[in-house]
Amino acid sequence: MNAATPSRISLAPLHAVLAQLDDFILGKPRETRLALACLLARGHLLIEDVPGVGKTTLAHALAATLGLAFQRVQFTSDMLPADLIGVSIYDRDSHAFRFHAGPVFSQVVLADEINRATPKTQSALLEAMEERQVTLDGETRELPDPFFVIATQNPSSQIGTFPLPESQLDRFLMRITLGYPDVAAERAMLLGEDRREMLRDAKPVISLAELADSQHAVRRVHVAPALVDYVQALCRATREAPDFHNGLSPRAALGLLAAARAWALLAGRDMVIPEDVQAVFAAVATHRLLARASNRPQPELVAKLQAAVAIP
Prior knowledge:
Blueprint: H1 12-24, H2 29-40, E1 45-48, H3 55-66, E2 70-74, H4 81-85, E3 86-91, E4 96-101, E5 108-112, H5 119-122, H6 124-131, E6 133-136, E7 139-142, E8 148-153, H7 166-169, E9 174-176, H8 183-191, H9 195-201, H10 208-219, H11 225-240, H12 250-266, H13 274-285, H14 299-308
Helix pairs in contact: 1-2, 1-3, 2-12, 10-12, 11-12, 12-13, 13-14
Protein name: AAA family ATPase
């Protein structure tokens, strides 16, 4: 299939995706837009918040709306890497080992409460997320395309959680929080249809070919040299800031540019403007920047740094 350019694809399917997501997650249009932009940029998404605000519902809704194969994995403290990747079992009839694929061999994988699993199990996702393949018993197996990991985690202050290491946090293109709904959205949810029934009845509003065309189109959104200067200035500011242990990595810089391209595409533009970078910067950067004072992400420090960097 030939890659589409931003000027050739129709944005109607993507707008239909956003509209249906907004029916499931009320009052959070920015968060659902960021989630879709993350997928279009071929990244992975981390959703962190308190229980019960719609983290799992958003993952289910995204898979159902896009019509992608979906697997949910509930991470627990006794979970093993084989529970995620799969295992080879000896078959007596064929006198050979036969591989039984785990849930990671799906197009959308929901790693629910990922920080309740041990670091050993968390690390099983690393190769899959970065290389889009897994290696077991000396054999490498490709994962489906598209491949999108949505991980939810509870705040680290809650009992029974294992903090994600920096190497795994860097694999997530974006981190978002949903927060509590406003009064109007919560009232509409209380008086409306049950979200579980809505998910059972949900139909895809975009084809796999249209989704692939949109992902290809993101790569062709134009980025001017001055815009690259702005991205580099933001990354350099994080590396020089005394507030953080480490600044943004080159992987994060590439991710920031890809996310800005996806945001521009959703806005109907074939070029990135500074406002696109600003719109996605917090989602891309906050989980990667651990404050020296608390050893935790501090969104207010990230916002302060972003405001201090001059816009071209």
